[in-house]
Design brief:
The protein is of the alpha/beta class and about 240 residues long. It has a single domain, classed as Rossmann fold (3-Layer(aba) Sandwich). The protein is about 40% helix and about 25% strand. The strands form 2 sheets. It has a 6-stranded mixed beta sheet with strand order 6-7-8-3-9-10, sandwiched between helices. A 4-stranded antiparallel beta sheet has the order 2-1-4-5, covered by helices on one side. β9 and β10 form a beta hairpin. The longest helix has 16 residues. Bound molecules: adenosine-5'-triphosphate. The site of adenosine-5'-triphosphate (ATP) has 10 residues, from α1.
């Protein structure tokens, strides 16, 4: 059974249809890159999977449960699917460790001691075990994004959605974040990433999805998508259409 099953999903903002019928099944352990031009609907698709946007049509199921829009279902969904954003969204007045503890305490309602143990373990997993007590402004952008990743992991999600998670970073800090993601992929985490890092998509992802004008225009294993793009739109996107 697919972990994430998307059937004929449509999403409109007012009169503008941004997703025009998306069908996509993602199996456990897949590492999926979503690529495409600005405005093609990549972020909107991720936000729909996480219930941050209410879909206008079609259906989305995660681990066999159909996504509904009531608060209880959304809470259950967000326990299963973590999301990491371009901006790290850490609370500046909380230490790295406290940032990782907070969601566990609020959403999972677990006690301080257990949350602290999990937070420590998750920070270690992203190479920041020594920085539990550091405040975000004492951490580099790459470190802050790694804290955000460990915060998502602390919820023990079945899948992680990543929305351009290296786009706000200085170039020299991109590698440390991508190597954490690469390790997660190697450990079998299901990942769906909107990314402009084509080399990463080629080297790490198991499937690449090219979105164009609100539709999945072309998809396949990276060697096919990058090595033998079929449609003029993808060829042009990859810089071969001229
Ligand atoms: N909340 C919103 N209200 C109205 N329009 C929106 C909203 N969110 C997104 N859109 C529009 O939907 C379209 C698709 O946006 P989306 O962010 O999904 O594209 P994208 O492929 O992720 O682009 P980018 O690479 O620039 O992030 C755009 O035209 C955008 O302006």
């Amino acid at each position: 059974m697919p972990l994430i099953e998307i059937e004929n999903v449509r999403k409109s903002f007012g009169a503008v249809e941004v997703l025009k019928g998306i069908d996509l099944a993602i199996e456990p352990g897949e590492v999926v890159a979503i690529i495409g031009k600005s405005g093609s609907g990549k972020t909107t698709l991720l936000r729909c999977i996480n219930g941050l946007e209410v879909i206008s049509g079609g259906s989305i199921s995660v681990a066999g449960t159909k996504l509904a829009s009531d608060e209880a279902s959304l809470r259950a969904l967000r326990l299963k699917v973590g999301m990491i954003f371009q901006q790290f969204n850490l609370f500046p007045h909380l230490t790295a460790g406290r940032n990782v503890m907070l969601a566990q305490k609020v959403v999972k309602k677990i006690g301080d001691r257990e949350a602290r143990e999990v937070a420590q373990a998750m920070l270690e997993r992203v190479g920041l075990g020594e920085r539990f007590d550091a405040y975000p402004d004492k951490l580099s952008g790459g470190q802050q994004q790694r804290v955000a990743i460990s915060r998502a992991l602390a919820m023990q999600p079945l899948a992680l959605l990543c929305d351009e998670i290296t786009s706000a970073l200085d170039p020299e800090l991109v590698g440390e974040v991508l190597s954490v993601v690469k390790e997660l992929a190697a450990e079998g985490m299901t990942l769906v990433m909107v990314t402009h890092e084509m080399r990463f998509a080629r080297d790490v992802c198991t499937r690449v999805i090219f979105m164009h004008d609100g539709r999945i225009h072309e998809q396949g294993p990276p060697e096919q998508v990058f090595g033998a793009p079929q449609t003029p739109e993808l060829q042009q996107f990859l810089g071969r259409g001229h």
